[in-house]
Design goal:
The complex is a heterodimer of chains A (114) and B (112). Chain A is an all-beta fold and 114 residues long. Chain A contains no helices and 11 strands. Chain A has strands at residues 5-7, 10-13, 19-24, 31-38, 42-50, 53-56, 65-71, 74-79, 88-95, 104-105, 109-113. In chain A, a hairpin with a 2-residue loop joins strand 7 and strand 8 (74-79). Chain B is built from no helices and 11 strands. Helix content of chain B is 0%, strand content 56%. The chains are: A mainly beta (114), B mainly beta (112). At the A-B interface, strand 5 of A face strand 5 and strand 10 of B.
Chain lengths: 114, 112
């Protein structure tokens, strides 16, 4: 299995631009999580989906952030417009919603907003 | 919501010594407590986990203990080696497919 796949691995953009991060969960996993990691705030859960349905988006910082999961094998996290304080590593993780609890993390996307 | 506190934030140990990291949680309904290891520039990876029906679990040099009454759990690494140097995160959750709340992380440095 290829594991959780994220793209791009690195993104540098200017303030005000739209940024789209992509995630492909492990095949057969039906829960997907988006996290943001910074030195100041640690590892924060932004939003998670079960069976493509958003369950908890209370961690989404503001309306500039949105996430979708149109099918079981793809999710996007969009920031529009981006700001320098959005600079962070964004991780996607997936798991099954039954049985094994382990969340498998993708390699992350390092976002820099200048 | 759940709140997970983790201590210490940094830990420096001599190679061969033991390392202990402690976490507390606030939601008594939490029943799943994983520990993740994150090496520099890499993704977090699960190293051990424990469920609330068990008080202790071991896997070679690492062990986790859980005290449900006090709502705290700990990670113990024995005979530390330089490759144990990393950031370790504890977390608490309630069910498979449900969200995890992570602690702030502990940066462990093992000095040769």
């Amino acid at each position: 299995d290829a594991g959780v796949i994220q793209s791009p691995r690195h993104e540098v953009t200017e303030m005000g631009q739209e940024v789209t991060l992509r995630c492909k969960p492990i095949s057969g996993h039906n829960s997907l999580f988006w996290y943001r990691q910074t030195m100041m705030r640690g590892l924060e859960l932004l939003i998670y989906f079960n069976n493509n349905v958003p369950i908890d988006d209370s961690g989404m910082p503001e309306d500039r952030f949105s996430a979708k999961m149109p099918n079981a094998s793809f999710s996007t996290l969009k920031i529009q417009p981006s700001e320098p304080r959005d600079s962070a590593v964004y991780f996607c993780a997936s798991t099954r919603s039954a049985g094994n609890y382990e969340q498998y993390f993708g390699p992350g996307t390092r976002l820099t907003v200048t | 919501g759940e709140n997970v506190e983790q201590h210490p934030s940094t830990l420096s140990v001599q190679e061969g010594d033991s390392a202990v990291i402690k976490c507390t949680y606030s939601d008594s309904a939490s029943n799943y407590f994983p520990w993740y290891k994150q090496e520099l520039g890499k993704r977090p990876q699960l190293i051990i986990d424990i469920r609330s029906n068990v008080g202790e679990k071991k896997d070679q040099r690492i062990a986790v203990t859980l005290n449900k009454t006090a709502k705290h759990f700990s990670l113990h690494i024995t005979e530390t080696q330089p490759e144990d140097s990393a950031v370790y995160f504890c977390a608490a959750g309630k069910a498979a497919g449900n969200k995890l709340t992570f602690g702030g992380g502990t940066r462990v440095l093992v000095k040769p």
